[in-house]
Amino acid sequence: MSKPSLLDFTKKELLTLIKPSFRVNQIFGWLYHRYANSYDDMKNIPKALREELAEKYIVNPLKIINKEISTDGTIKYLLELQDGKTMEAVWLKMKDAIHTEDGELVQEARFTICVSTQVGCKVGCSFCLTAKGGFTRDLTTGEIVAQVVALKRDNEHKHNRMINIVYMGMGEPLDNLDNLAKAIEIFKEEEGLCISGKRQTVSTSGLSNKIDRLGEMGLGVHIAISLHAVDDKLRTELIPMNKAHNIASIIDAVKRFPIDTRKRVMFEYLVIKDKNDDLASAKKLVKLLSDIKAKVNLIYFNPYPGTPYERPSKESMVSFADYLINHGLLCTIRDSKGMDISAACGQLKEQNKGA
Ligand code: SAH
Ligand code: SF4
User: Fold this and answer.
1) DSSP class of residue 19?
2) Residue 157: CA atoms inside 13 Å, Cβ hemisphere, count?
3) Is there a contact between 169 and 205 (Cβ–Cβ < 8 Å)?
4) Does pTM top 0.85 for this prediction?
5) Domain count across the chain
6) Is the pLDDT of residue 251 over 50?
7) Cα distance between residue 104 and residue 59, in whole Å
8) pLDDT at site 260
9) For the chain, how big is the Rg over CA atoms in Å?
10) Above 60 in pLDDT, residue 233?
């Protein structure tokens, strides 16, 4: 068994593990404000305490082993864990920096980090490359937290600069709910990264009972539902566990989920040519979401070798979106960030296999 990481613990827990308490404040600063990689970095912590801690805990549970940089500013990271397993996280540039004509900075660039929650995934969606590799294991809380720390460090992104987190990397977040919930809490720590729940979005393939549990935890996070189909037959073909958690059960769970009244629940709809890209599906989607404060994010299916599915045409995507908008649904088409580096779920890891 490998040792736990300091990133596995909330500040409150560290206070029970490490004495005196002012040392915990210093260590927390090293971890989340200065992104320390090892005990050697922690200059103001006495050597004896560092040695004592090193016997029980590691500082950083992962390392960056590959990095692909897209022309649009997206960076996809392949990360290796203590046990040699690998997973990925993505650094997404959402908005460019704004400067005045004299070159003065008006607004800094905005970034979002896409985080993994498992190595592989149990859900087995038929369109998803992650699913092809099967399920290996859950990530620990520290391994989830470490992705954000590592990417901020690598991009020299100061601790107090705003960042959003989306749990849309490898794995089904709600299948690892306890570790996820603790990571969310650690991200929220005021003396740490201070990333509020509002800045964190959990994407799920629709484990309806766990949507309820997440809501009951009162973490204040957003949810995004990977809906992808409007009838149970097709949805079960795409997402086999739809048999146990059908569309109606997901919609009911979403209606119970506590959301900020100004915000909307995001429904992701992966558009696949000749499967779900017709206007009859768009019509059903409008009906299905009619009494929910929803917004729809249409995603182009991103093909990979061996998949039976095809990318939809731009025309069908646009007419699908127009239908939704004309019928009162908020809708965006996800611009394919990092297209040139295959930034869709699971693809970097697959490319590196056997390399
Ligand atoms: N397991 C969670 C979160 C991770 S999947 C979920 O399913 O919601 C992240 C996103 O990648 C999902 O919206 C999924 O639909 C999308 N995705 C998976 N395979 C894809 C592909 N081949 N092309 C485009 N998007 C894909
Ligand atoms: Fe898992 Fe999400 Fe991929 Fe489905 S789409 S297999 S839930 S990671």
Assistant:
1) S
2) 22
3) no
4) yes
5) 2
6) yes
7) 38
8) 76
9) 21
10) yes
Residues 24 and 94 occupy one common structural domain: no
Q: 55 and 66: one domain?
A: no
Residue that is written with structure tokens 């697959």 in the block: 350
- Residues 16-42: tens digit of each pLDDT: 999 999 999 999 999 999 999 999 999
Using the mean position of ligand 2's atoms as its centre, give its distance from the Cα of residue 225 in Å. Answer: 12
In sequence order, the 6+-apart residues with CB closer than 8 A to the CB of 298 are: 269, 271, 317, 320, 321, 331, 332, 333, 334
Residue among 125, 128, 331, 345 flagged as catalytic: 345
Residues in the chain: 355
* Nearest-ligand number for the alpha carbon of 344: 1
Strands (E), 82-134: 86-95, 98-99, 105-107, 110-114, 118-120
Asked if residue 72 and residue 55 are part of one domain, the reply reads no
The residue whose CB lies within 8 Å of the most ligand 2 atoms, and thus the one to mutate among 204, 205, 238, 272, is: 205
Residue 312 and residue 216 share a domain: yes
One-letter amino acid identity for 136?
Answer: T
CA-nearest of 354, 268, 277 to 320 is: 277
Q: Examine the domain organization and report whether 122 and 50 are in the same domain.
A: no
- The residue whose C-alpha atom lies closest to atom 3 belonging to ligand 2 is 128
DSSP 176: G
Decide if 191 is catalytic.
no
Active site residue 101: no
| Residue-number span of the structural domain to which 281 is assigned | 62-351
